[in-house]
Amino acid sequence: MTEQKANAKMVTKLLFRLLPIQILLAAVGSVNGIVSSFFASNYVGVDAMSAVGLYGPLNMLLSAISLMLVGGSVILCGKYMGQNQQDRLQNAFSLNLILTTAISLVFVVFYLFTALFDLTGFLTKDPLVRPIFNRYLLGQAVGVLPQLLGSQIAAFLSMENRGKRTFIASLVYIFVNLILNYLFVKVLSLEAFGLAIASSLGMWIFFAVQAQYYISGSSHLRLKLGGLDWKESLSIIKIGIPGAVNNGYQTLRGLTVNWLLTAFVGSVGISAFAAANNLLAIVWSIPVGMQAVSRMMLSVSMGEEDRQTLTDVMRAMFRRFLPLMCGVSVLIILCAEPLTRIFYRDPAEPVYMMTVWGIRILPLCMPLAVISMHFLCYGQTSGKQGLVHVLSLLDGVVCVAGFTALLIRSAGMNSVYIANVLNGIVSALVILAYAWMKKKRFPRNMEELMVIPDDFGAPKSERMDLSVNSIDGVVSIAEQVQKFCLARGVDRRRAYLAGLSMEEMAGNIVEHGFGKDGKSHCVDVRVVHKNDDVILRIKDDCAPFDPSERQKLAEGDDVTRNIGIRMVFKIARDVQYQNILGLNVLTIRI
Q1: What angle do CA 188, 190, 196 make, to 5 degrees?
Q2: In angstroms, how far is CA 436 from the centroid of its own chain?
């Protein structure tokens, strides 16, 4: 039990270390929405706000494409990292960038053609809003390529533990976006086109700051154009589609809801919904960031076949992420009217109270969304396509559009807000029902709720999980490793060497990694007996340290130095090191 708590603590610590960068990344587009809405409502007019709202479904479609590529690529790369398959890792990374560029160019052509030839009638028939929307679409076309590429590179930077670069790029983008909106909208009076072009140019800068790391050649992941396995692109799409289907359904949902609001409430309803949505998008970046860090952890755990970390990630969601999201939602609800005044200041206008109620009701669905988003991500990672498609269909179209259609005659504008909350409740019940159906009983623990197959990973009888917190525990763990091996029929020589290797490497981490930064650390140890192999996996959250590089440097040095590392490399059949998401992961086969 102590070992499980230690692993859970390490997982939670890592999740929260990665979380700020992922929230900031998700918030980049949200900040753009708030800035655009502010300048639209204050310097252009309500019709311009309607144009921003009408663009929402198209932007959601772009997000679906981006999520498909990110999800498929990150899951594949995470598994390849967990399996230490470097060639396939580089191949997946390169294919992602090539596919993203090709799809972006298709969207650019579509935007330009549709706007220039006034073919936007499928989105709005309003003669006042339509020309404004056409100009807005032209400006957005300029930013499609950096928007999609920037989101892909940000995910890969996190995998390489270079999230600070995304943090810097995000801050630069926010600053540039504000300056350009002020220049193009307020000073030059470019109206809707100015709103869009400011965002697009800011996206190019956001992309450039991140891309410089890969252009410099200092990255582990490298773009290669020759010798690619193009069949892998189908795997990226196949794995990524289920997670992106939700955003694809939300595109259809957005079109349906916009039609219902236009028919029963009017364009003012779209303006209010756009204002509430764009403001709350900054808050939605929190659950989106939570999902992003969990996706990376889940994908690596799937590659390592580590069921303990899989369940620890989901427990962290319920015990840490969910309460945090509840607190944030309450705070937003209490500040509904002051937040509404960012866009609309006259309480006598219908759009004012419509926006206020949106900010009061919509946050109620956010804690529920944290649950559904995590299970959607887990289902995508683990291949539970049925659960993914059902949740995506319910969340994307059936619940929100369906409940809105049922309630809009009686509840008016509030129907769309209430529908989002009902959607979260239904999704949570579906997750519970799925586990109940698969296990033939009410789930009694996290593994049953997640429906983890019994044959996933090494069975409990063939693995041992331990933790080291101090140098005193190193010798004890070495003895336990030796006893574990002997109890499973491993010959005495290999059992002794396994214990000795664990003592040397874990002791080296404790001696040189602990205490240097003034933070508490833990070494997570796993011993697996599989196919007559003894596999030692040592994971720690100290500063990056590759023992294979130290072993190479030690060759030719004084033979009395680095004795432990030299010895392990001589007695082990295979030694592999990786730094995954900021964790040192050493795998030794005896």
Answers
A1: 125
A2: 27
Neighbours of 460 (CB within 10 A): 9
In a shared domain, residues 468 and 427: no
pTM of the model: 0.68
pLDDT tens per residue across span 50-65 = 777 778 788 888 888 8
Residue owning tokens 């932007």:
59
Burial of 4 (0-12, 13-18, 19+ CB in 10 A): middle
Q: Which residue has the tokens 């005896």?
A: 590
Cα 536 from chain centre: 29
Look at 63 and 180; give whichever has higher pLDDT: 180
Residues 475 and 435 reside in one and the same domain: no
Strand order across the 533-540 sheet: 463-468, 523-530, 533-540, 583-589, 574-580
Hey, which residues does 585 pair with through a beta bridge? 539, 578
| Cα dihedral 170, 173, 175, 180 in deg (nearest 10) | -170
Q: Is residue 456 part of a domain?
A: no
Q: What is the largest CA-CA distance in the chain?
A: 84
User: Is residue 108 assigned to a domain?
Assistant: yes
**pLDDT bucket at 522, cuts 50 / 70 / 90:** confident
Cβ neighbours, 10 Å, residue 185? 26
Range of the domain at 477: 461-589
Between CA 359 and CA 190 the distance in angstroms is 30
Asked if 509 and 540 touch (Cβ cutoff 8 Å), the reply is yes
Tell whether 406 is covered by a domain.
Answer: yes
Residue 222 lies in a domain: yes
* Residue 347 burial class via C-beta count within 10 angstroms: exposed 0-12, middle 13-18, buried 19 and up: exposed
Q: Is the pLDDT of residue 217 over 80?
A: no
Q: What is the 3-state secondary structure (H, E, C) of 502-517?
A: HHHHHHHHHHHHCCCC
- Closest by CA position to 345, among listed 329, 333, 356: 356
**173, 25 in Cβ contact below 8 A?**
no
DSSP 206: H
Residues 510, 575 within the same domain: yes
Q: Are residues 471 and 343 in the same domain?
A: no
Dig out the tokens for 361 from the structure: 């009701």
Work out the average pLDDT over 252-266: 86
Q: Which amino acid is at 240?
A: G
| CB neighbour list of residue 335: distance below 8 Å, 6 or more residues apart | 359
Task: Look at residues 522, 536, 569, 523 and name the one whose alpha carbon lies nearest to residue 550.
Answer: 569
484 and 394 together in one domain: no
Same-domain status, 519 and 585: yes
pLDDT of residue 553: 42
Say yes or no: 480 and 435 in one domain: no
Q: What is the CATH number of the domain that holds 504?
A: 3.30.565.10
Name the β-bridge partners of 580: 583
Q: E-strand spans in 165-269? A: none
Identify residue 416 by its one-letter amino acid code.
V
- Find out whether 87 and 222 touch, Cβ atoms under 8 Å: no
Last residue in a domain, options 447, 478, 509 = 447
What does the pLDDT average to over 157-166?
81
